[in-house]
Amino acid sequence: MDKTEKYSLLIKQISALIDGETDLVAVMANVCAAIHETMGFWWTGFYRVVDNELLLGPFQGPVACMHIGFGKGVCGTAWKEQRTIIVPDVELFPGHIACSSLSRSEIVVPVLSKGREVVAVLDIDSKELATFDNIDQQYLEEVCKMLSPLFVKH
Ligand code: SME
After folding, report:
1. H or E element: which one contains 57?
2. What would the pLDDT profile of 43-82 be if each residue is shown by its tens digit?
3. Helix or strand holding residue 6 (H, E)
4. What is the spatial distance between Cα 111 and Cα 84, in angstroms, rounded to a whole number?
5. Fold assignment, 3-150
């Protein structure tokens, strides 16, 4: 199966998994597990915006840093700039936060609320250089759009 076929299946799987579900933690946990297992990434997880920082959420992979500031690292930059960031070589990204020395490339996709505010980011790391391209971006943005309605502010 090529990458596009894997992602097409993944989107259907995620759609079925989250159908009718309302608990954010349960949904984020299963969504990152589905992405991680289907695509075979090194680290896949969510950070939520909590008290004006990114706080670690459900993930698959080795332990990771728990707090990331606005504009810090790839995640904080994706939050600040409200856009997906693809990093082909983490060593060339100024301010990259190395949670694992084995991470070589990375993609971070913001989850936007209905009001277009960043409420979380989906962060995926690879042990290989230049793993992520516009196909990953397209499908992972679709996944993040599917999660957006669950981030209702209380
Ligand atoms: N590398 C990220 C930090 C999170 S870990 O990769 C899980 C960054 O620079 O924001």
Report:
1. strand 53-60
2. 999 999 999 999 999 999 999 999 999 999 999 999 999 9
3. helix 3-18
4. 10
5. Beta-Lactamase (3.30.450)
| Angle at 147 (CA atoms; ends 53, 71), nearest 5 degrees | 25
CA distance 141 to 60: 19
Nearest-angstrom CA–CA distance, 75 and 1: 30
SS3 130: coil
64 lines ligand 1 (CB under 6 A): yes
Mutate to test the pocket of ligand 1, among 43, 54, 65, 107 (most ligand atoms within 8 A of CB): 65
Nearest protein Cα to ligand 1, atom 6: 99
Against a cut of 0.90, is the pTM above it?
A: yes
